[in-house]
Design the sequence.
């Protein structure tokens, strides 16, 4: 399936329309300071499918270019570059998902799919918990550690392998080249700061306040991203403590897994609630309307993972632990299983686009001089 075969409701297929708009933008160049899309665009005059794929995944949908553009509707050019690139970007994520039909179904009907799956998986864990282990403390009094490992390891690794296969194809199709350490470090630095959401001048973006700048999306996005990373760090530290140090759960409050997990859960809840709120205020016509529900479902699911984890911890020592454990594990497993098909893939694809962009940057004079000096020596 090519990107142009996915129906979007526009007069032109997504690649053709996005290419038309990029060519007009490249002739104007008024928005050169906004994000990574514009300096990348200015390197060329003719844009191949690979170029368009790269530009679309560089775009963070900050929408600043739309509100600065003199060629938006009712002008005859009718430019809406944020929506055009969003359609190409979304189509690429669906094309590289395996199987593709799952990604398309989730993005169009994400909320009922996500929470029906949470309920089904929670019932599965509730049934497992009915077979209580003979021994165990904390959560392991309800579900054996070996059972959790046997269920979650494949549920985590198999979706990651599916994402890796899609990324490999994306890298090839978007013209990605050789990767160097400095490219990766530069891309990680950009992603860590969410540089492409600062409006180019550090004022923020125009996602939810039209022609007025706001830094709220960047802050909520950072809370979500770092909350997720802290939760992942909590699980990783607990794994090291369990298997390498012989320190088995449950852990006390002032332990690294607990502190990382609580901080991560709180940031996830705050960040996801903020992003969901901003999404209700943003103009849906400046994104891919078709997938609004799937994007909202992803944010709500990720926030529910954090909220259910906090609720589970708060219920420690009460009769609610069994039910809340099943609900939390159901949410976590649903999140893992849906990773290749939900907007979670945007983190992987955008980081890959940023790495690729770092590799495409023209060398500075100092870099050229250093390279020539090393060749002479």
Sequence:
């Amino acid at each position: 399936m090519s990107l142009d075969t996915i129906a979007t409701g526009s007069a032109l297929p997504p690649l053709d329309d996005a290419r038309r708009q990029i060519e007009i933008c490249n002739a104007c160049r008024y928005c050169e300071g906004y994000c990574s899309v514009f300096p990348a665009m200015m390197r060329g005059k003719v844009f191949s499918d690979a170029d368009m794929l790269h530009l679309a995944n560089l775009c963070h949908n900050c929408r600043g270019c739309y509100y600065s553009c003199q060629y938006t509707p009712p002008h005859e050019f009718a430019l809406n570059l944020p929506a055009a690139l969003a359609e190409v970007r979304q189509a690429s994520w669906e094309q590289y998902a395996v199987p593709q039909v799952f990604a398309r179904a989730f993005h169009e009907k994400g909320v009922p799919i996500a929470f029906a799956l949470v309920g089904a998986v929670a019932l599965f864990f509730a049934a497992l918990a009915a077979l209580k282990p003979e021994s165990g403390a904390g959560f392991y009094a309800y579900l054996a550690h070996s059972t959790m490992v046997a269920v979650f390891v494949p549920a985590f690794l198999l979706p990651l392998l599916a994402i890796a296969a899609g990324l490999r194809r994306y890298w090839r199709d978007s013209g990605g080249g050789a990767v160097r350490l400095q490219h990766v470090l530069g891309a990680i630095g950009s992603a860590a700061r969410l540089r492409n959401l600062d409006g180019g001048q550090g004022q923020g973006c125009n996602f939810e306040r039209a022609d007025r700048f706001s830094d709220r999306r960047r802050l909520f996005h950072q809370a979500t991203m770092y909350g997720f990373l802290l939760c992942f760090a909590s699980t990783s530290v607990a794994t090291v403590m369990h298997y390498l140090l012989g320190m088995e759960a449950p852990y006390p409050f002032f332990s690294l897994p607990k502190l990382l997990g609580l901080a991560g859960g709180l940031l996830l809840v705050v960040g996801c609630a903020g992003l969901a709120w901003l999404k209700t205020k943003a103009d849906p016509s400046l994104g891919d309307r078709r997938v609004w529900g799937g994007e909202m479902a992803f944010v709500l699911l990720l926030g529910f993972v954090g909220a259910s984890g906090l609720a589970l911890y708060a219920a420690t020592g009460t009769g609610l632990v069994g039910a809340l454990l099943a609900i939390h594990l159901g949410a976590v497993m649903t999140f893992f299983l849906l990773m290749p098909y939900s907007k979670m893939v945007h983190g992987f694809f955008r980081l890959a686009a940023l790495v690729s962009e770092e590799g495409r940057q023209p060398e500075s004079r100092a870099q050229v001089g250093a390279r020539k000096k090393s060749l002479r020596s």
